[in-house]
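Quick one, probably user error.
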C-alpha cells in the first residue's frame, strides 16, 4: 500500500534545492495556510486564479450599491481577524435580524421559534407532538437527510415549519436523496435544539417565557467594510507579502505532475515548480489537474441576483429565508439595512438561488420568480434587477454515496503527495470562515506543518 507523502519530508528532500511550497487558492483557506506555513519557516508562493484574493468573500459595486456573493457576518472573535492587524476595526458592527417566510406566507423568526408551535390549534399541536414522540421511537436513521429530520422533528413539524421545502429547494432533490451529513454540518442549530434535553428546555421556554425570540437582543456581529471586501483582503495580502509570501494572482492552475521529488504546475501564465503543494482549490478541480479525470464529486453553484426595491416591509429584517412552498430563491440579504445610506431612495438586496449540477444560470427567470413571490405576499414593491453573478462550487452536494467517493478521492490525492485543506480543498461543508481556518490548521498539523500551539482560538458565525 502506498504511504502518504508528508510535505515535511518533501521540504527536506536534498533533490529539491529551493524548498518552495505552493499554496493553491487565495480564499480564506489559502490565506490562512500561507500564513501558517510562513510562520513555520517555509518559503511560500500563493497562486490564485482571480485578480484579487478572498474567494467567496467578493463584493460587486453596481451604481450606488455594493453587494456580496457570500460571507458577510463575523463574530467579534472570528479567526479571520487574526490574519492581519486592524481587520476587526475595519469591520462595522450590526445586529442581525433573520426572518423566514413560512408555508402560507407568514413572516416568522429564523431558524425556528418555540412559541410559534404554541400558536397552533390544540388538536394540530397534539397530533404534531404525538407524531414527534412516535418518530423518536420508530423512525430509523438510514444515512439520509429525510430520516434524520423526521426522527428529530417528526414529519408534521418537518413539513409544517417549511424546513422540508427549504432543504428541497437548496438541493434540487428531495431530502431522501441527500446525506444526513447535511443535518449535522449545515443544520447545527436544529441538531442541537432537537436533542432531548434541549427539547425539554425549549418546551419550558415556550410555555413560560413572555417575549418572542425575535425580539430578544441579539449578539452584535461584525460585517465587511462598507466599501466592500477589497480593503480587507488587500491588507491581508500586504501582511503576507511583508512576511515573505510570494503571490501570483490571475494565475489559474491547469495541470500538475511529478518530476522526481518536485511538482511541475502548468498554469495559464507559465510553468511553476514546487517541492510541495498545499491545495485549497475545489477538490474536483485539483483531481482533474492531477489525474486528468473527474472524481465524481458534485457541487452546487449559485445564482446571486443583485436587486433594488422602492419599498420592503420593515418586518423582513436584514436577512430573509424562504421556507415557503413557493419561490426558487433561498435567501435574501438586505444590504440597505446593514449599510444604511439615507441619501439612497431605494432598498438594495442580494438574492441567492442554488443551481443543480449541470444546471443553467438563469437570472431573469429567477428574478421574475422572486418578484412574483415577494411582491405577491405584499413584502416588496417595484423590484428591479441591477445585476447578477454565478458563484461556482458554492456548496458540496452530499448524496448518500458521496462519502465513499470523497474518501477515495482524498486518498488518491494524498498518495500523489499533495496536502489538501479547507472547505473547498477537502469538500467539507464548513459554514463559517472561523471553521475553515480551524480545519486548515488541523490538517496542516496532521501533515507535520504546524505545531499544536500555533494560532488563536475563536468561533464563527453560521451563514
Ligand atoms: C453563500 C455563502 C455565504 C457564507 N456566509 C458566511 C458568513 O456570513 N460568515 C462566515 O464566517 N462564513 C460564511 N461562509 C463560509 C466561508 O466564507 C467559506 O466557507 C470560506 O470562505 C471558504 O473558503 P475557501 O478558501 O475554502 O474557499 P473559496 O473562498 O471558494 O476559495 C477558493 C479559491 O480558490 C481559487 N481557485 C479555484 N480554482 C483555481 C485554480 N484552478 N487555480 C487557482 N486558483 C483557483 C478561487 O478563485 C478561490 O479564490 C459563507 C459561504 C457561502 C458559500
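Nope, works fine. Designed sequence:
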Amino acid at each position: 500500500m502506498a504511504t502518504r507523502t508528508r510535505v515535511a519530508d518533501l521540504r527536506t528532500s536534498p533533490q529539491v534545492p529551493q524548498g518552495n511550497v505552493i499554496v493553491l487558492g487565495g480564499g480564506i483557506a489559502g490565506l490562512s495556510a500561507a500564513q501558517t506555513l510562513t510562520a513555520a519557516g517555509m518559503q511560500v508562493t500563493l497562486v490564485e486564479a482571480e485578480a484579487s484574493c478572498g474567494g467567496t468573500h467578493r463584493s460587486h459595486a453596481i451604481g450606488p450599491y455594493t453587494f456580496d456573493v457570500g460571507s458577510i457576518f463575523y463574530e467579534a472573535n472570528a479567526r479571520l481577524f487574526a490574519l492581519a492587524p486592524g481587520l476587526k476595526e475595519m469591520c462595522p458592527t450590526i445586529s442581525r435580524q433573520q426572518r423566514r417566510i413560512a408555508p402560507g406566507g407568514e413572516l416568522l423568526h429564523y431558524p425556528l421559534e418555540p412559541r410559534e408551535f404554541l400558536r397552533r390549534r390544540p388538536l394540530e399541536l397534539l397530533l404534531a407532538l404525538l407524531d414527534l414522540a412516535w418518530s423518536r421511537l420508530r423512525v430509523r436513521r438510514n444515512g439520509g437527510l429525510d430520516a434524520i429530520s423526521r426522527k428529530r422533528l417528526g414529519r408534521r413539524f418537518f413539513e409544517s415549519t417549511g424546513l422540508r421545502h427549504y432543504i428541497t429547494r437548496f438541493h434540487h432533490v428531495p431530502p431522501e436523496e441527500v446525506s444526513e451529513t447535511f443535518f449535522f454540518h449545515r443544520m447545527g442549530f436544529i441538531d442541537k435544539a432537537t436533542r432531548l434535553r434541549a427539547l425539554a428546555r425549549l418546551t419550558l421556554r415556550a410555555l413560560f417565557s413572555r417575549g418572542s425570540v425575535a425580539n430578544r437582543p441579539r449578539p452584535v456581529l461584525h460585517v465587511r467594510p462598507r466599501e466592500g471586501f477589497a480593503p480587507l483582503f488587500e491588507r491581508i495580502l500586504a501582511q503576507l507579502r511583508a512576511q515573505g509570501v510570494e503571490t501570483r494572482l490571475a494565475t489559474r492552475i491547469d495541470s500538475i505532475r511529478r518530476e522526481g521529488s518536485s511538482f511541475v504546475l502548468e498554469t495559464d501564465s507559465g510553468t511553476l515548480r514546487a517541492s510541495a503543494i498545499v491545495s485549497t482549490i475545489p477538490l474536483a478541480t485539483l483531481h482533474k489537474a492531477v489525474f486528468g479525470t473527474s472524481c465524481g464529486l458534485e457541487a452546487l453553484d449559485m445564482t446571486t441576483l443583485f436587486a433594488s426595491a422602492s419599498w420592503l416591509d420593515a418586518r423582513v429584517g436584514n436577512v430573509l429565508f424562504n421556507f415557503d412552498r413557493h419561490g426558487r430563491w433561498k435567501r435574501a440579504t438586505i444590504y440597505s439595512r446593514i449599510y444604511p445610506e439615507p441619501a439612497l431612495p431605494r432598498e438594495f438586496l442580494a438574492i441567492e438561488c442554488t443551481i443543480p449540477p449541470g444546471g443553467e444560470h438563469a437570472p431573469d427567470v429567477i428574478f421574475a420568480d422572486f418578484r412574483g413571490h415577494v411582491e405577491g405576499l405584499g413584502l416588496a414593491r417595484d423590484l428591479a434587477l441591477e445585476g447578477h453573478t454565478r458563484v461556482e462550487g458554492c456548496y458540496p452536494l452530499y448524496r448518500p454515496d458521496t462519502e465513499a467517493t470523497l474518501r477515495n478521492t482524498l486518498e488518491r490525492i494524498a498518495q500523489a503527495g499533495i496536502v489538501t485543506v479547507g472547505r473547498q480543498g477537502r469538500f467539507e461543508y464548513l459554514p463559517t470562515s472561523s471553521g475553515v481556518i480551524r480545519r486548515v490548521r488541523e490538517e496542516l498539523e496532521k501533515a507535520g506543518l504546524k505545531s499544536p500551539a500555533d494560532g488563536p482560538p475563536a468561533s464563527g458565525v453560521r451563514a
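The pocket of flavin-adenine dinucleotide is lined by residues 24-30, 47-50, 55-57, 70-74, 252-253, 280-282, 285, 394, 422-424, 430-433, 436, 460-461, 463 (CB under 6 Å).
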